[in-house]
């Protein structure tokens, strides 16, 4: 299953879902219909059908939780070390500006732990660890307001004038003279 936050089910949610499956198993033993079970447990009929098939093949034990789909490749201790590295800032790792990107974090993970992650994998790892995308609360220290004002006065008017003049045109590309 995929979840928008990328983290999967929490332990409490896994237990809740396992409880639903075990309730369904009791009702399978009584011979109840899948649609009635689905309605009462507020799940899809297709889920109940999958659970019934697993129950038919392996009994109630087959409906027990199998745990998380995949374990994180970084241990808790390694993730704490990664957080310490991120707290040092990008400059400590050789980047000039003070922005952490997923690509840069991927590089730090590769250098520090000798593991290869995809960009999406880095994002999921960070979300599982409680990190989120951040937008700076204030302007960058490197920002030069005088340079920005000069650009607006000098460069921007030239960029505006470079557009094509607005004149009535033709509706036909092949016959420009046609109305």
Write structural notes for this entry:
With 179 residues, the protein is mainly α. 52% of the residues lie in helices and 0% in strands. It is built from 7 helices and no strands. Helix 5 crosses helix 6 (119-128). The chain is flat and about 80 Å long. The two termini are 57 Å apart.
List the helices and strands and how they pair.
Layout: H1 11-29, H2 34-41, H3 45-58, H4 76-88, H5 102-113, H6 119-128, H7 145-161
Helix pairs in contact: 1-3, 2-3, 4-5, 5-6
How would you summarize this macromolecular structure in one to three sentences?
The protein has seven helices and no strands. The protein is mainly α and 179 residues long.
- The level of helicity is 40-55%
The number of helical segments is: 7
Oligomer: single chain
In this structure, how is the largest beta sheet organized? none
Instruction: Report the mean per-residue pLDDT as an integer.
Output: 82
Structural class: mainly alpha
Strand content: under 5%
- Radius of gyration, in Å, reads 29 Å
- Counting DSSP E segments of at least 2 residues, the number of strands comes to 0
């Amino acid at each position: 299953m995929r979840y928008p936050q990328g983290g999967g089910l929490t332990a409490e949610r896994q237990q809740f879902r396992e409880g639903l499956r075990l309730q369904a198993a009791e009702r399978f033993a009584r011979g109840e219909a899948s649609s009635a079970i689905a309605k009462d447990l507020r799940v899809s009929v297709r889920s109940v059908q999958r659970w019934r098939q697993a129950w038919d093949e392996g009994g109630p034990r087959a409906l027990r939780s199998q745990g998380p789909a995949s374990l994180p490749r970084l241990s808790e201790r390694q993730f704490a070390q990664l957080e310490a590295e991120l707290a040092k800032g990008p400059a400590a790792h050789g980047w000039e500006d003070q922005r952490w990107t997923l690509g840069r974090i991927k590089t730090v993970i590769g250098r520090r732990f000798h593991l290869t992650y995809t960009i999406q994998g880095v994002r999921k790892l960070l979300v599982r660890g409680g990190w989120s995308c951040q937008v700076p609360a204030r302007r960058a220290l490197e920002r030069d307001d005088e340079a920005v004002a000069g650009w607006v006065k000098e460069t921007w008017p030239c960029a505006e004038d470079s557009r094509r003049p607005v004149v009535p045109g033709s509706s036909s590309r092949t016959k420009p003279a046609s109305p």
